[in-house]
């Protein structure tokens, strides 16, 4: 055990630091400067993808959050409609499947009971095809889907998923680019997105250097009962994943909200005892997010803002902290901003003395309904 963990105290920490390698492996021989290589989704994959007019994405837990990010990406770059749903809901819903819809199941293990059942249900529902995004090549999900894109995260031991998530985002970014390429994206824009994606391992590596700073601010969360995570747009799922990480391993009750919803409820909870974590990348929504944060500050909430180095976020946010993250570009930013939130959850849990790798009541793979 200690040998496998090497210099790291927990598997989760080791797996967080393995992300540059895992993401690079997931990109290996699948993308180059001219674009995504043909048929990386399996034989005949491009033929199917070329005819796809929409996507239904289904998953559980962290994998579901990866699917939510993909929705923003695919809609904006490939201009195809995408719906994302948790597998336990999808499988029992009377789903309407428009013609030429691709069904995508995302799962680290490929054995999650609800996700597998959803795939089996989907096969009866008449999709254009089914695609598994999965980390275990010999899993049931991979065996049963028409197309597959393997994440190459390697074995993930920590129950709280980290490198599986960022490699899922990587795989879904490849899917986004392939679909965008097949749907007439502008060539320059396509090349720029490919270059960004190829930079992701480096960008994650840079974000990992934030660990000492984050370990220090983690102490501020230790006595807390609750925390609120805010994000907007493609960073709303990043906030959801950050909140999930914190609740899974530190047992602090954490909720994520799209920042624009703050005034429709959660603002009532904000006072001096409520830390608010905000994901604040640069972009058109930043000004709106700033005014959301102003509302938190005005009510005495302790703000922890993760801001893009490129963003105009200069002032320290009241009582909390401002942490600068080099996002490496708007496209890959969700994967990069995930890193400090993983580190935050990890260090809060360590300080609270929980069983980081095996949180109470949770299982790595949920193979029963
Ligand atoms: C469990 C794990 C989570 C994981 C979820 C889905 O709840 O604790 O970390 O995200 O299952 O697992 P999957 O293997 O389908 O991605």
UniProtKB/TrEMBL annotation:
Enzyme Commission (EC) number: 2.6.1.16
Keyword presence, Disulfide bond: no
GO BP, sorted A to Z: amino sugar biosynthetic process; carbohydrate metabolic process; fructose 6-phosphate metabolic process; protein N-linked glycosylation; UDP-N-acetylglucosamine metabolic process
Catalysed conversion reaction: D-fructose 6-phosphate + L-glutamine = D-glucosamine 6-phosphate + L-glutamate
Active-site residues (renumbered): 364
Entry's localization field: Cytoplasm
Domain SIS: 45-185, 217-359
Top-rank EC class of the record's enzyme: transferase
GO cellular component, one term: cytosol
Subunit description: Homodimer.
Designated name of the protein: Glutamine--fructose-6-phosphate aminotransferase [isomerizing]
UniProt source species: Aerosticca soli
Residue window of the full protein shown: 241 to 609 of 609
């Amino acid at each position: 055990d200690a040998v496998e963990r090497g210099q790291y105290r927990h598997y989760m920490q080791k797996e967080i630091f393995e992300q540059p390698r895992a993401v690079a492996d997931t990109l290996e021989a699948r993308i180059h400067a001219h674009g995504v290589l043909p048929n990386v989704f399996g034989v005949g994959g491009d033929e199917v993808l070329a005819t796809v007019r929409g996507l239904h994405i289904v998953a559980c837990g962290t994998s579901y959050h990866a699917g939510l990010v993909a929705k923003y990406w695919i809609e904006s770059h490939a201009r195809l409609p995408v719906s994302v749903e948790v597998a336990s809901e999808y499988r029992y819903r009377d789903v309407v499947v428009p013609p030429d819809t691709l069904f995508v199941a995302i799962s680290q293990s490929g054995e999650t009971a609800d996700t597998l059942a959803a795939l089996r249900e989907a096969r009866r529902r008449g999709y254009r095809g089914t695609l598994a995004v999965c980390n275990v090549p010999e899993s049931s999900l991979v065996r049963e889907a028409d197309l597959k894109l393997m994440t190459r995260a390697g074995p993930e031991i920590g129950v709280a998923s980290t490198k599986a998530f960022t490699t899922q985002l990587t795989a879904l970014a490849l899917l986004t680019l392939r679909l965008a390429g097949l749907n007439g994206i502008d060539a320059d824009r396509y090349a720029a997105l490919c270059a960004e994606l190829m930079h992701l391992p480096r960008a994650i590596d840079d974000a990992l250097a934030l660990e000492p700073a984050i370990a220090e601010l983690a102490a501020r969360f230790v006595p807390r009962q609750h925390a609120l995570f805010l994000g907007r747009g493609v960073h709303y799922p990043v906030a959801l994943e950050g909140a999930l990480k914190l609740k899974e391993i530190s047992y602090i009750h954490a909720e994520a909200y799209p920042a624009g919803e703050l005034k429709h409820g959660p603002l009532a909870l904000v006072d001096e005892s409520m830390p608010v974590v905000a994901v604040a990348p640069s972009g058109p929504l930043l000004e709106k997010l700033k005014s959301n944060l102003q509302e938190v500050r005005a009510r005495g909430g302790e703000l922890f803002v993760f801001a893009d180095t490129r963003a105009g976020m200069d002032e320290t946010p009241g009582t909390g902290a401002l942490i600068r993250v080099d996002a490496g570009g708007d496209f890959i930013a969700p994967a990069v901003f995930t890193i400090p939130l993983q580190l935050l959850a990890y260090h809060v849990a360590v300080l609270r003395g929980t069983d980081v790798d095996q949180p109470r009541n949770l299982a790595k793979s949920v193979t029963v309904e």
